[in-house]
Amino acid sequence: MKKLAALAGLALIMAGNALAFDQDRAMMLLTAQVAFGPRVPNSPEAAACRDFLHRELSFWCDTAWVQPFSYTSTDQGQTLKLYNIVGQFNPKAADRVMLCGHWDSRPFCDRDPDPNNQMKPLPAANDGAGQIAILLEIARQLHVKPVSFGVDFVFFDGEDFGRESVIDDYLLGSKHFASTQPIPKPRYGILLDLVAEKDLKIQYELNSYMNARHVVEKVFAAAERVKAMSFVREPGQAVMDDHIPFLEKGIPVIDLIDFDYKYWHTIEDTPDECSPYSMGEVGRTILDVLHSEKF
Ligand SMILES: [Zn+2]
Predict the structure, then answer these.
(1) CA 147 – ligand 1 centroid, Å
(2) In angstroms, what is the span from residue 82 Cα to ligand 1's centroid?
């Protein structure tokens, strides 16, 4: 009887619209990525984590694959082997939504106050693992409760490789993906970056607001429906992020970001600065966007 009651409870939870997002599982997925070590391009840690993420996407999505490419940084004098990781639901559907974030770790903690840490790679808990963990849990939820249109998960490599003055060395995965466009163009896209911190506050990112306001409105309306208090309807900063290469091609991709993170690009960007609650708010919001979508 007890077991039956537990199962009935589970069925009830599954039947809810967007409330099933398991924030504790998302937190576990964040910690699991950080445990590989920094996922800096060309490192064995990145290779191991890449396999893990590809496997996770393969498990929940209809199909998952990796887009390899290379990039030579004249500034840092090395050739990088990079990998965007893709998972697709309903790969043949014409109407599609892209959910994306970067999975790589920055090679240096150049904002750390301690000079001894500034050449060390970033743990990248909030600035990397957090958004990917949220997206993986969303993928699992879509497996449990599917939608009728296409959803593409794209994890970009090499977002955070550049030194601060060297703009060419940033956004490597999204620039490659947008220029090759290996999947049909989405109706719109949602990029997550730096959205797992404890003190989360997501304002309007201004490039998104100026270029894809209807998507911003759609997402903030969903946040209100699920009572995600970390979404605040006020103008934030304009951020150069992985949505820009898509906006430049006329594809409306918005950036959900809290750019005001105390441990940004420091050695303290660790799981203990992240919060399952924040991840839950973001996850539930995006699931609500998807389940309310009517193409
Ligand atoms: Zn970063």
Answers:
(1) 32
(2) 17
Quote the ligand 1 centre to 104 CA distance (angstroms).
Answer: 9
Residue 129 CA, ligand 1 centroid: distance in Å: 11
Cα dihedral 223, 193, 48, 138, rounded to 10, equals 10
If you measure from the C-alpha of residue 42 to the centroid of ligand 1, how many angstroms do you get, rounded to a whole number? Answer: 18
Distance separating alpha carbons of residues 282 and 228, to the nearest angstrom: 7
What residues contact 26, with CB distance under 8 A and at least 6 apart? 133, 134, 136, 137, 276, 279, 280, 283
pLDDT digits (tens, 9 = 90+) for 55-91: 999 999 999 999 999 999 999 899 999 999 999 999 9
Q: How far is CA 112 from CA 48, 117, 119, 126, 128, in A?
A: 26, 6, 9, 15, 17
Is 74 strand, coil or helix?
A: coil
- Distance in Å, CA 107 to ligand 1 centroid: 10
At 172, list the tokens. Answer: 């490597």
First-residue to last-residue Cα distance in the chain: 43
Is residue 95 helix, strand or coil?
Answer: coil
CA of 5 to the centre of ligand 1 (A): 45
- Which of these, 89, 92, 79, lies nearest to 158 by C-alpha position? 79
Where in the chain are the domains?
A: 20-292
Tell the CATH topology of 20-292: Aminopeptidase (3.40.630)
pLDDT tens digits along 127-153: 999 999 999 999 999 999 999 999 999
Spacing, Cα 58 to ligand 1 middle (Å): 27
Neighbours of 91 (CB within 10 A): 16
Buried b (16+ CB within 10 A) or exposed e, 39-59: bbbebebbeebbebbbebbee
pTM score, two decimals?
Answer: 0.93
